[in-house]
Amino acid sequence: MPITQTVGESVLRKEVVDAMVKQIAKRAYKFRQAFAVVSTNAWTNTFYREDLAVSSGPTGNKFKGIPRGANFPSSDVKWEQVKVRITKFGSEANIIWEDILANDINVQSRTLIRKTEDVVKAIDDANWEDLTEGRTIDGRIQSFSILFTGNEAHGRWDQASAAIIDDLMKASELISTNGNYDVGNLIAFISPKDHRSIKNYVADKGTQWQGPATQVLTNGTVGSVAGITLVESNSVTASYALVVKPKTCATWKSLVSL
Predict the structure, then answer these.
(1) Pfam families, per this entry (predicted)?
(2) Is residue 55 in a domain?
(3) Would you list the DSSP string of 70-97?
């Protein structure tokens, strides 16, 4: 190589290479907190769901007011058998040995982190789809629409007339009445768009809710609304929200720990 560089040329100027990758944020599981995690060593797992309806007794033979000496009324308890198979998640990347030894940044560590995040995102997306049954309104999951035309009394979440509190309370009511569950620790999974709408709604209600509104205006946080903890996730479809009873609504069968 010919010696041609002179004073003032860019190749002679000092350069510092920072080995720390900047402007990144680690992805975290959002939906795992909703599941009861149970280990398994089987590829296929069978479990049973129980009919949660509380029977009042057969017609003409109620549980209350049994005549003296009469037989007790009978009623059936129903179950549903469900079989599920383990779903495998994974991601890989090829890293050249020379790059591990001689690159400016730690490509081995960064690749492991990003491949892990690939799996985390894939699992959260799958959890969202499974818990909402693909966002079906008429499925087994109790559902109702929160999207209404602009002038109706029950407004959209991104409008001043939003009925966010009523919608969350309706979800809580459905969980309580359909399963007799304690609703003291519910979680609502929401999208970033709807999280923004909730913050705006709470801030706009400042005169009625001075404490929560002040918290939003000073540090931008809304930890819970109407006693329901809010969890923001990019896996949640905008204009949808999922309210669950954590550790009860679903079970995660783990063949290999994540």
Answers:
(1) Phage_capsid_4 (PF25209)
(2) no
(3) PPPP-----EEEEEEEPPP--------H
